[in-house]
Each structure stands twice: as C-alpha cells, then as structure tokens.
Automatic annotation (TrEMBL):
Keywords: Pyridoxal phosphate
Organism: marine metagenome
Protein family per UniProt: Belongs to the threonine aldolase family.
MF terms (GO), sorted A to Z: L-allo-threonine aldolase activity
Co-factor requirement: pyridoxal 5'-phosphate
Pfam family, any one: Beta_elim_lyase
Domain Aromatic amino acid beta-eliminating lyase/threonine aldolase: 73-303
PANTHER family: L-THREONINE ALDOLASE (PTHR48097:SF9), L-THREONINE ALDOLASE-RELATED (PTHR48097)
A GO biological-process term: L-threonine catabolic process
Protein name: Aromatic amino acid beta-eliminating lyase/threonine aldolase domain-containing protein
Length: 389
C-alpha cells in the first residue's frame, strides 16, 4: 500500500508525472488566461480535464490518505493496476484487461497478437494506427497495414471484399489476418464509424476467419451520444483499446481488453517492448478515480451542453456548427471583433476556451465532464455577458 508519507517521498516533485494535457493548444491557453484549479474550472475544449502536475500530485496524495490507500503494483502487475484492469474488463464485457503504458503499444500488441505472424491488417486511412505510430506495426511485427477510405471515417464491407479479392488474385499469398477499426475517429473530428457498416464488417470477418480490433480510445465518450454502451460497441470485436489519459485524466496509460486466452500472458510481450513499467500505480490510481461514476457525470455534461447550445443559439452573436455523425466536438461561431478579449472575459469566470480558429470565426469546442460543473443557463449567461461587454 502507498500511504501519504511514502507517496510524498516517491513523487513530491510534480515533474515526475509529466503534463497530462494532450494538445499543444492547452499549454497556450494556460499561459494566457487566469488560472483556476482543474477541479474548479469549466474547460470547454478537449476530451479531459487537463490536470496539471500539481493537480495530479494533490489528487494522488488525497487518494493515498483515503480508506485503504493506494495498493502498489510490481512491474505493472497487481495492486491498483489489477483493480483498474478488472473494472475495465467488466465495463467492456471482456474476460480480461491489461494495462499498457501507451495507446500506441496497446494497438500494436493487439494487432500483433491477433495476426499471429507476418500478414496484412486493414485499417482506416485516417486512423491513428496508420498515421501516428511511425510504422511501428510494419517495422517491429512485419504486419503490413492496408489503408481504406482516405478522407472518410468509415470504410464499407464491399471495400473489404474487394480488397480480399484483389489479395487472393496475387501471385504470392498475402493474407489479411486482422481488421482494425477506430471509432470515434480523431482525424475526422470525432466522427463515428458507421454502425451498420461496422456490424457488417465484423460479421464478415468472423465468417472468413479474420480477427478484429477496436481502437476505442474515446469509446466511453462515444457512448454519451448514442444508445449503446461501451460493452455493446466492443462486443463484436476480439480486442478493444481504451485511453486512460485522454479523459480519465491519468498522466499516461491505456487498457487493452479481450479474451483471457489472448491476454493472460500479454505482460510478457508488454515487457519485451519496454512497456513493463516498474511502478504504474500513479497512472492507474488516477484513471480508476475518474473512471468510477464517469458515465453519470458525462451524461450530465452532455445534457448541459445540449441545453447550452439551444440557449446561446438564440443570440445573434452565436451559431453552432455540428460535425456530421460527430461526438463531443463541434464548432462555435462567434461574431466579435476581438475573440481573445472575449475568451479572457470568460476565463475570469473560470470558463476556459481554446485558442480562436485561425480564420477568426470562432472556436472548436469539446464536451468533457467539466461541463457538468455548471448549469446551462449560467453558462449561456456568461457567454452573452462576455460578447456584449
């Protein structure tokens, strides 16, 4: 167990945890606006709360003092890490879940293990796995990623069939062993992969002996904008990855969930790739703290955002531009000669906006759980006051 004294000895220097914010714009906003605790402010951009190192240290100190404290792990096994894994396995409807230090490693090891050797994997051309991992799957596991649907969030089962037909006609056998689907798709501003096509593709994959992986980094955000649970979305897939830092506010970390037969010994591969952290409890403790009760808190945040959109849209200075098939991101157009001044007025009331869009038309906003800290009418009133002042 990590008690308060041992925790402070281990990591009183907040730099040990690094910044938990995921976007460079958050640092720019922090430097230019009056600051309040991340536990108090209403942050109208990004997926998570944007905890500072100081916020993280204070939270860990509090968690270490409460109840039985924080149970330490050993090389990312046991303790609060195991508690976190069990909680996510249950929420995702999977037999087993394994902590990973990064989403890049979670996606890689999922595809690598499902493939079972050199082969091909179908991915979206707009996916994180294809664009943002430095060809890790190709370089380290000899699995070639085949991108479909450039410029779109969704590829179709017909496109999968056509690719398999073309592969089968080649002079050298190059089988497709895995289909990986990301939803929501960040490069498409949080657009959801079409659920009808997803059902068709996963059914087709099962019929043809092809394994499936869901890059569900933000899947618990997606559930706030539909009728299905995270377990419903994950059910047709062999494995699913969920981010721990994007909106469960850990300094880093990811969860990979799937069948026990596949994941029980996954810690060996995790360590082989340099991911067997000696102490992962700071990440797991924070993520578990925010995971508990998240669906209820996020449902309130979405409700507040929906009411707020209706209220501010009644004012001539504001208009809302939704993202088709989107989730938590949208555009707010603001008629004001100085958007930085408008933003700073709100910042003085602990309402934080991102940097204005380059074209000066407004802001790209994101719904995170901090929206639930205020009423829609109070938030709308602040916007009207700021634009009319």
């Amino acid at each position: 167990m990590i008690d308060r004294r041992r925790f402070l000895q281990f990591g009183a220097a907040s730099g040990v945890f690094g910044l938990t914010t995921s976007q460079a714009e958050q640092s720019a906003v922090a430097a230019s606006q009056p600051q309040a605790s991340s536990e108090q402010s209403v942050k109208l951009f990004g997926d998570g709360l944007g905890l500072t190192p100081d916020d993280s240290v204070k939270l860990l100190t509090r968690l270490a003092e409460e109840g039985e404290g924080v149970q330490a792990d050993s090389y990312s096994n046991g303790g609060v890490v195991e508690e976190l894994e069990q909680a996510f396995a249950a929420a995702l409807g999977k037999e087993r879940a394994v902590f990973m230090p990064t989403g890049t490693l979670a996606n890689h090891l999922a595809v690598r293990t499902l493939a079972g050797g050199p082969s091909r994997a179908i991915v979206q051309a707009e996916s994180h796995l294809y664009n943002d991992t430095g060809d890790t799957v190709q370089t380290l596991s000899n699995i070639q990623l085949v991108p479909l649907a450039p410029g779109r969030a969704t590829f179709t089962v017909d496109e999968v069939r056509a690719l398999l037909d073309r592969t089968a006609s080649g002079r050298v056998a190059t089988p497709v062993s895995v289909i990986s689907i990301e939803s929501p798709v960040r490069r498409k501003s949080g657009e959801i992969f079409d659920e009808t096509e997803m059902d068709k593709i996963t059914a087709f994959a099962r019929q043809n002996g092809i394994h499936t992986h869901l890059d569900g980094a933000r899947i618990f955000l997606q559930t706030g904008f539909g009728e299905q649970s995270a377990a419903d979305y994950a059910r047709p897939f062999d494995t699913v990855y969920v981010s721990l830092y994007k909106y469960f506010n850990a300094p880093s970390g990811a969860i990979l969930a799937g069948p026990s037969a596949l994941l029980d010994k996954m810690f060996h591969a995790r360590r082989m790739f340099g991911g067997g952290l000696a102490h992962a409890w700071p990440f797991a403790a924070i993520a578990l703290h925010y995971f508990r009760g998240f669906p209820e808190r996020y449902a309130r945040a979405v409700h507040v955002s929906n009411e707020w959109k209706q209220l501010v849209s009644k004012h001539d200075a504001f208009s809302i531009k939704p993202i088709p098939a989107g989730t938590n991101l949208f555009w707010l157009q603001v008629k004001h000669p100085d958007l930085d001044r408008f933003r700073n007025r709100l910042a003085h009331q602990n309402v934080r906006l991102p940097a204005p869009l380059v074209d000066g038309s407004g802001f790209r906003l994101g719904i995170n759980e901090s929206w639930g800290r205020i009423t829609s009418s109070d938030l709308a009133g602040m916007f009207v006051q700021a634009v009319e002042a």
